[in-house]
């Protein structure tokens, strides 16, 4: 299999710390800001951010997990139904600044669905998007991240694979690989 390393453990750590400093600069003491990790892979990123912000700034950031499965435009178009993940939001987002956090931005479909799902918890004052990897030139929707770790040019035949040590991989790493042909 052809693999190309995009970010290694050290680069991911640097990127996450940079994200934290950007958030601290832009959102003061998080009095009116919350983070929402987009299921299924965004919570890994948001959990790390929350830990780092607490380490750097000494404050606890309100955060939760948002599943948008039933809001996806392709939910009923699949041969097998999608399996929903947990939504865990124990606060209202009415009037809050919301940072949606995910690992990879590809077509924009998940982000669009997440914005629909988020409305069930109130109308936010502002919504921003933070992703580790922005796959440029692949959007189906006019969505772009406010914060990104790396922008990559990829082909439809390629896949961005994010590996986390906390999920059983040897170390944190992000790769571009060829999709397996069925």
TrEMBL record:
Q: Which Pfam families match?
A: Pribosyltran
Where is each Phosphoribosyltransferase domain found? Answer: 7-164
Superkingdom of the source species = Bacteria
Which CDD domains does the entry link to? PRTases_typeI
> Which PANTHER family is this protein grouped with?
BIFUNCTIONAL PROTEIN PYRR
Q: Name the chain's protein.
A: PyrR protein
């Amino acid at each position: 299999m052809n693999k190309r390393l995009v970010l290694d453990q050290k680069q991911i750590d640097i990127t996450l710390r940079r994200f934290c400093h950007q958030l601290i600069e832009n959102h003061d003491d998080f009095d009116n800001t919350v983070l929402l990790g987009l299921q299924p892979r965004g919570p890994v990123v948001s959990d790390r951010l929350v830990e780092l912000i607490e380490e750097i700034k000494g404050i606890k950031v309100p955060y939760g997990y948002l599943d948008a499965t039933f809001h996806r435009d392709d939910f009923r178009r699949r041969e097998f139904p999608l399996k929903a993940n947990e939504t865990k939001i124990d606060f209202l987002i009415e009037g809050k600044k919301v940072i949606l956090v995910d690992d990879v931005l590809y077509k924009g479909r998940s982000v669009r669905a997440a914005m629909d799902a988020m409305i069930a918890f109130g109308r936010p004052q502002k919504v921003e998007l933070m992703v580790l990897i922005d796959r440029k030139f692949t959007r189906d929707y006019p969505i772009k991240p406010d914060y990104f770790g790396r922008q990559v040019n990829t082909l439809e035949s390629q896949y961005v694979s994010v590996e986390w040590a906390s999920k059983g991989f040897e170390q944190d790493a992000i790769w571009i690989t060829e999709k397996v042909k069925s």
